[in-house]
Amino acid sequence: PAALWGMAVEFFHLPCPLTDWENRMRHGAGQTGYGGGFIEHYVWPVIYPAGLTPGIQLGLGAVVLVINVLVYLRLIRQWAA
């Protein structure tokens, strides 16, 4: 499920439902929130290179999908044997 959610966020540019909750909690603690989503705020500056395009994002999402399918197929074959 986590991998599917991650792919959906990448493919459809969905906002993380926890970002709004985090910003409300920060405001409640007297801190400022941040614009954008969790990924843009925390992950992109560390992991994603400059110049990342939607095509590259789709490619990365496809790689994640293929890896997950291969792992699950292997597990299913092991359980069936």
Task: Describe what this molecule looks like in 3D.
With 81 residues, this protein is mainly alpha-helical. The protein has one domain (2-80). It contains four helices and no strands. The protein has helices at 2-12, 17-28, 38-43, 54-80. Helix 1 (2-12) packs antiparallel against helix 4. The longest helix is centred in the last third of the chain and has 27 residues, at 54-80. The chain is elongated, with a radius of gyration of 17 Å.
Describe the secondary structure blueprint for this structure.
Layout: H1 2-12, H2 17-28, H3 38-43, H4 54-80
Concise summary:
With 81 residues, the protein is mainly alpha-helical.
Count the helices. How many? 4
For the sheet with most strands, the description reads: none
The helix content, as a percent range, equals 55-70%
Query: Average pLDDT, to the nearest integer?
Result: 87
Number-wise, the strands total: 0
Structure classification: mainly alpha
Order of helices and strands: HHHH
Overall shape: elongated
